[in-house]
Amino acid sequence: MPRTPDELRGLVEDYVAELALQPELGSLEAPIRHALSGGGKRVRPVLCLAAGEAVGGEPTHVLPAAAAVELVHSFSLVHDDLPALDNDTERRGRPSVWAAYGEASAILAGDALLSEAFRLALVYDMTAVARELMEATLAMIGGQQQDLEGGHDLAQLHRLKTGALFNASIMCGVWAAGLPVEEHTPWRAFAGELGLLFQVVDDILDGDGYVLEVGADGARHLADEAAVRAQTRLDALEADTSVLAEIVSGLVARTS
Amino acid sequence: MPRTPDELRGLVEDYVAELALQPELGSLEAPIRHALSGGGKRVRPVLCLAAGEAVGGEPTHVLPAAAAVELVHSFSLVHDDLPALDNDTERRGRPSVWAAYGEASAILAGDALLSEAFRLALVYDMTAVARELMEATLAMIGGQQQDLEGGHDLAQLHRLKTGALFNASIMCGVWAAGLPVEEHTPWRAFAGELGLLFQVVDDILDGDGYVLEVGADGARHLADEAAVRAQTRLDALEADTSVLAEIVSGLVARTS
Question: What is the pLDDT of residues B108-124, one digit of tens each?
Answer without folding.
Answer: 999 999 999 999 999 99
